[in-house]
Task: inverse folding
C-alpha cells in the first residue's frame, strides 16, 4: 500500500517538474516581459538566473502570464503613507 502511494507521489512530482521545465523555457524566452515590463531586454544571464524559480513556481507565473496581470506593487507602511498624500 505504501509503495503504491510513493509511486503515485513520485509520478505526480515528475509530471510537475516536467511541466515546469517546459513552461520555464517558454516563459524566460518571451513571457517574462509580459508580466514584468522591466525585464524587457534582459540579458541571457538574467534569463538563466530566473529559469529554476520559473520552473518551480510555474502555476503562479502561468496564471499571471495568461491573465495579463500587471506586476505586483510592494505594500509597506512607508509606501502606503506616501500614496495617501498624508506624508508631511
Result:
Amino acid at each position: 500500500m505504501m509503495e503504491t502511494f510513493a509511486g503515485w507521489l513520485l509520478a505526480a512530482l515528475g509530471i510537475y517538474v516536467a511541466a515546469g521545465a517546459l513552461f520555464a523555457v517558454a516563459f524566460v524566452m518571451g513571457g517574462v516581459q509580459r508580466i514584468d515590463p522591466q525585464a524587457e531586454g534582459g540579458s541571457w544571464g538574467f534569463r538563466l538566473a530566473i529559469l529554476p524559480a520559473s520552473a518551480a513556481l510555474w502555476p503562479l507565473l502561468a496564471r499571471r502570464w495568461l491573465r495579463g496581470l500587471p506586476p505586483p506593487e510592494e505594500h509597506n507602511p512607508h509606501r502606503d503613507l506616501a500614496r495617501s498624500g498624508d506624508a508631511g
Notes: The radius of gyration is 19 Å.
